[in-house]
Structure formats: structure tokens, C-alpha cells
Design a protein that fits this description.
With 258 residues, this protein is an alpha+beta fold. It folds into two domains: 122 residues, no CATH class; 117 residues, Cathepsin B, Chain A, CATH 3.90.70. 35% of the residues lie in helices and 17% in strands. It is built from eight helices and eight strands. A six-stranded antiparallel sheet has the order 3-8-4-5-6-7, sandwiched between helices. About 3% of the residues have low confidence.
């Protein structure tokens, strides 16, 4: 991969930095991290591919870097010109910028993560888009159980959390759609959630999922921002997270299995 004779479609992405980042993520997919970008949706997909199909992940990375296009199953990934000309922002690893940015660019050409509407406006990924990516990437069992408005009554949302937990236990890859304030001890206790803004991946079952006693405590582990097994709620110091507070910031899930 680091062969200097290989072509590059990314003039502002160093070849050695990209190659070392790709190898590190093949070794540990939890290193995949959207960092300074709002590419949490692509991160959820790409981590699953790197985990279940590391050869496919590696080949897609090489193809994107050398040709600007790649294919995983029936998922065609193409980086736009603006993205290819852009440097990796902030602390974002070049391997993640190329992979995650290209996945987002494929379905979001007008709101490119490198274009006019970069940053948070360009990045949020709809559940239907996540669902489509999984199906095209070869996942044969895909379930989309989300509500962008979050208007379901608590009992319905609690049973949705139980389905997510049960599917994780059954070997599904489960991406949760949440209000990111759920992850912060300073904000998880408030009652305000205007909309979902973050995708995380379930790394454990959800304690007490399905309860109708919303004063019971909720806890589970997730992958997000390059970390695996991050505890929700934060501990220590953290605060107990009740199901009442959890459900305010939970908007469902997309689950997939090969």
C-alpha cells in the first residue's frame, strides 16, 4: 500500500499516513473515528465492514485512495472532486477521512463533507440511508426501527430498546440513533431533546431494556468516536441514568446481520 509508485487521487493526504492508519484499523476496527467531522453514520457502517470483512475494508480503502472509487458488495463508493482535494480536518486520521468521507459523499453529493455545507449540516445520516448502505454492502438481514421525531409513547420506545438489546444478543450489528447529550454526564439528566444527532453502536445488551418502570436504571456499552466499550452513563464519576431520561434521547436503531 505504501509503494511510492502507486497513484493517489488525494493530493493532500499523505500516502504513508493513510497506509499506517488503514493497517491500524484492520488490526483494531475500534480505532475508526470520525473525530473532527460529523461522519458518525459512515463510521457505524465502516466499522462493521472492517470487523466482519477486513479484506473488503482494506481493498476498498486502497481502491478509494488510488482510484477514487470502490465497491463493497453492491455498494458503490465514489469520492467527489471536492472531497479528494480536501485535507483531513483537525485530528481526523487520513484513513478515516478517505473512507468515511467517501461513503458520505456517495449519498450526499450536494452536502459534501468537504464542500460548501461542510461540518454538522453536511454530516447527519438518515436511518433510511444507513439501512440502504447495509443492504448494498451485503447484509441480508436489516431492520430499521427508528423515529426521527421521537414521538412514540414511553412504552413503545422501551420495547424498541428491548428489540435492539435482543438483536445485539442474537449477533446483529446494532446502530443506535440518539441525542448525543445522552453521552455527557452534564446533560443526560435533562428533559430536552429536539432531535437525534448521533449514531453509536451497541457493544452490550441494555440493562432492564423493555421495563415499564421508567425509574429503573439503564446502562450499556457502545462504540463511538474511536472507542469501544464506552460505558453509558459515564462512570466514574457519572450519574445514574434512568429509563425515563434515556428514552427522551433514544430514537431507535438500525440492525444488520450477514
Amino acid at each position: 500500500m505504501a509503494n511510492p509508485a502507486l497513484p493517489s487521487m488525494w493530493p493532500r493526504v499523505d500516502k504513508l499516513d493513510f497506509a499506517s492508519g488503514l493497517l491500524a484499523r484492520i488490526d483494531d476496527p475500534n480505532r475508526i473515528n470520525q473525530s473532527a467531522t460529523p461522519l458518525c453514520g459512515p463510521a457505524a457502517l465502516v466499522r462493521s465492514i472492517a470487523t466482519s470483512n477486513p479484506d473488503g475494508y482494506a481493498q476498498a480503502g486502497i481502491d478509494l485512495y488510488t482510484r477514487g472509487t470502490a465497491r463493497i458488495g453492491n455498494l458503490n463508493i465514489t469520492a467527489g472532486n471536492e472531497l479528494k482535494q480536501a485535507p483531513a480536518p483537525g485530528s481526523t486520521n487520513p484513513a478515516d477521512w478517505v473512507m468515511l468521507g467517501s461513503v458520505r459523499d456517495t449519498s450526499n453529493w450536494f452536502l459534501s463533507p468537504a464542500g460548501w455545507f461542510r461540518n454538522n449540516f453536511a454530516g447527519p445520516t438518515l436511518p433510511s440511508t444507513i439501512e440502504g448502505w447495509f443492504r448494498q454492502a451485503g447484509y441480508t438481514r436489516v431492520i430499521n426501527d427508528t423515529s426521527l421525531l421521537g414521538g412514540d409513547i414511553p412504552s413503545v420506545k422501551s420495547m424498541c430498546a428491548k428489540r435492539a438489546s435482543d438483536l445485539f444478543n442474537a449477533g446483529y450489528y446494532v446502530a443506535l440513533l440518539i441525542d448525543g447529550n445522552m453521552l455527557e454526564a452534564s446533560n443526560q439528566d435533562d428533559y430536552i431533546s429536539m432531535y437525534p444527532d448521533h449514531w453509536v453502536v451497541l457493544n452490550s445488551t441494555i440493562d432492564n431494556a423493555g421495563t415499564m418502570d421508567y425509574s429503573r436504571l439503564c446502562s450499556f456499552k457502545i462504540y463511538t468516536w474511536g472507542t469501544g466499550d464506552r460505558q453509558v452513563p459515564e462512570t466514574p464519576p457519572g450519574r445514574p441514568l434512568t429509563f425515563e431520561k434515556f428514552l427522551y434521547k433514544f430514537y431507535g436503531f438500525v440492525a444488520a446481520k450477514l
